[in-house]
Q: What sequence folds into this?
């Protein structure tokens, strides 16, 4: 069975969802549909399924899957037994799930009702809907706060753990660190609580980070900041090539100043 973007059969606040009974397996297909195999039985288990093709890539997962984590809390009012199911365990997934007080599972049991969010999408799918824009705006609202600048400069070297194999780029931030006076070095590989990372990032005046996921995700936590993208080549290329990447970049520019440092 193919499930496509136009098969919404459940609306919850501003979110469009679709429900499928008795799912035995599911897979994400072609940036615009899921393929599910069905079985039979009496419904006993309820699941919310958000992971898509690039669930093991940090930035993809945040803007393709995590943006629907707030929906899970709403679904609990309709289905008190519902569980969030993820395809695989990742530290970055844990951080966001803990932030929203959600404990995920990693497989579905038989006799189920599965709920999928729409739009089915990917960052490299060059199509964007008003619904998607609205979901990203709503997601950002959970993180942005007004804070006093405690740090003049925060430097965020690119993380090395759990990088997607195609994006495992490393940059030398040491020359930059040596030029700044007493910068705060935030190594996100060491973060175990997303709230701590948000509090630090939102307490800086100038935020130095690398292109790609560090900019896309940490930009959600910034308001009235100077964000400096170090080694910005990928960001510049992606902004020219992918409409969703450009949308998110412009979203960060609505409340921050964004500049580049080669």
A:
């Amino acid at each position: 069975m193919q499930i496509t973007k136009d098969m919404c059969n459940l609306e919850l606040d501003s979110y469009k969802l679709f429900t499928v009974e008795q799912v035995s397996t599911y897979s994400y297909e072609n940036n615009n549909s899921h393929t599910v195999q069905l079985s039979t039985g009496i419904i006993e288990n309820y699941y919310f399924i958000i992971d898509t093709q690039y669930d093991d890539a940090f930035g993809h997962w945040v803007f393709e899957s995590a943006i629907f984590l707030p929906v899970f809390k709403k679904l609990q009012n309709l289905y008190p037994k519902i569980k969030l199911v993820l395809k695989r365990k990742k530290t970055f997934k844990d951080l966001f799930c803990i932030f929203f007080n959600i404990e995920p599972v990693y497989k579905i049991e038989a006799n189920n009702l599965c709920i999928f969010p729409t739009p089915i999408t990917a960052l490299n799918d060059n199509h964007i809907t008003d619904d998607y824009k609205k979901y990203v705006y709503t997601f950002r609202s959970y993180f942005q706060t007004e804070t006093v600048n405690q740090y003049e400069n925060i430097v965020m070297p690119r993380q090395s753990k759990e990088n997607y194999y195609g994006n495992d780029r490393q940059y030398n931030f040491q020359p930059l660190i040596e030029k700044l006076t007493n910068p705060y070095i935030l190594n996100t590989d060491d973060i175990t609580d997303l709230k701590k990372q948000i509090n630090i990032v939102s307490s800086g005046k100038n935020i130095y980070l690398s292109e790609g996921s560090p900019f896309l995700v940490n930009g959600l936590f910034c308001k009235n900041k100077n964000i400096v993208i170090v080694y910005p080549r990928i960001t510049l290329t992606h902004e020219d090539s992918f409409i969703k990447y450009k949308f998110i970049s412009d979203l960060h520019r609505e409340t921050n100043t964004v500049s580049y440092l080669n």
Notes: The chain has a mean pLDDT of 91. Residues 243-255 form the longest helix (13 residues). The chain has nine helices and 13 strands.
